[in-house]
Amino acid sequence: MIRKLSAVAPLLAFAIALIAMLGSLYAQYLGYQPCVLCWWQRIFMYPLVFIIPIGIWYSNRELSAYVIPFTVLGAGTAFYQTLLYYGILSEAFAPCAVGISCTQQIPSFLGLNLITASLGSFIAISALMIIHRRFNYEIS
Predict the structure, then answer these.
(1) Angle (nearest 5°) at CA 24 between 47 and 62
(2) Mean pLDDT on 76-95
(3) What is the pTM of this model?
């Protein structure tokens, strides 16, 4: 089953990145302005919408090597914002001194808000790239 998943993993990763990008743009259209940490998460997510399909098109064996640095940094940023949002870290640690607060209340849908959805997206893309690399290209 995992071997079958590994064959379509880059397509699934692309779909997740595309949905994350469109979701963040739609939220901004609805009036939820991004904070500093949200902008950093966008910086790490949006290039994946271009990198992944190019890697698929050229059957690039090193696709995971290009994608995973973005997802690890994005997940780290999203995790940090999650800690701030849920009050685990004090708001004094928030880099959002000017402008929109990194802990602004945002609506949730099925228990997910944009911050946790972003974290989940980065983790899922990372996992898919690892599965793809492991089962499609044996690492010597």
Answers:
(1) 25
(2) 82
(3) 0.87
